[in-house]
Write a structure and sequence with these properties.
The protein is α+β, with helices and mostly antiparallel strands. The protein is built from one helix and twelve strands; from the N terminus they run H-E-E-E-E-E-E-E-E-E-E-E-E. It starts with 10 loop residues before the first helix and ends with a strand.
Length: about 190
């Protein structure tokens, strides 16, 4: 069956269709670039300080949108150590953090934090014995800051250490939303 003359595309029309397609592709790439620059980022976890919830090599989708940071949120922090770190917010501004050496519990405002809500056991936290200088506790979290800990406390360099200390919220790149890799562990941030 022959195509009617009125339906055949001239070289100029084909060129216009290709240019339209290229224009749409460029717009899509720019939109994706803007979204992943200002709203979402994919971060690769380095180390095992957040095990068992996040392991070395995991890829996590992080939102940088202006969402308030709350106790229990997993955040990515920049400008503290050489590379970004991923940690859990334990206390926010104005709260008092301490540790109970007998029960190995983290205390916030005098109450033990129920860490089972984060998929962890209670009583896993000690003040570290380390060559790094450790903060003295109890500590009140200053205005505009948060106190963070890694889920794997025995290997985590976190707010217990003077080198990291209290985290200025301006140094929080974003909150973890979803683990996207490895594929067998895809799921919402815990």
């Amino acid at each position: 069956m022959e195509t009617p003359v009125s339906e055949k595309k001239t070289p100029g029309q084909r060129k216009k269709n290709v240019l339209d397609w290229v224009e749409e592709l460029v717009i899509a790439v720019v939109i994706i670039g803007v979204v992943f620059t200002f709203f979402f980022r994919i971060i690769t976890v380095t180390g095992n300080s957040m095990a068992p919830n996040y392991s070395d090599g995991d890829r996590v989708l992080v939102t940088g949108a202006a969402l308030g940071v709350e106790q229990g949120d997993v955040v990515v922090v920049v400008n503290v150590l050489e590379e970004p770190i991923i940690k859990r917010v334990i206390a926010t501004e104005g709260q008092v953090v301490d540790f109970d050496p007998d029960t190995r519990a983290v205390l916030v405002d005098g109450q033990p934090v129920d860490e089972t809500q984060f998929g962890l056991e209670n009583g896993i936290t000690d003040l570290p014995y380390s060559s790094f200088e450790v903060l003295e506790f109890p500590q009140t979290v200053p205005e505009g800051c948060v106190f963070v800990l890694g889920d794997n406390r025995s290997v985590s360099e976190d707010s217990r250490y003077q080198r990291v200390g209290m985290i200025d919220t301006r140094n929080i790149l974003g909150k973890a939303l979803v683990r996207i890799f490895p594929l067998d562990r895809i799921g919402l941030a815990q």
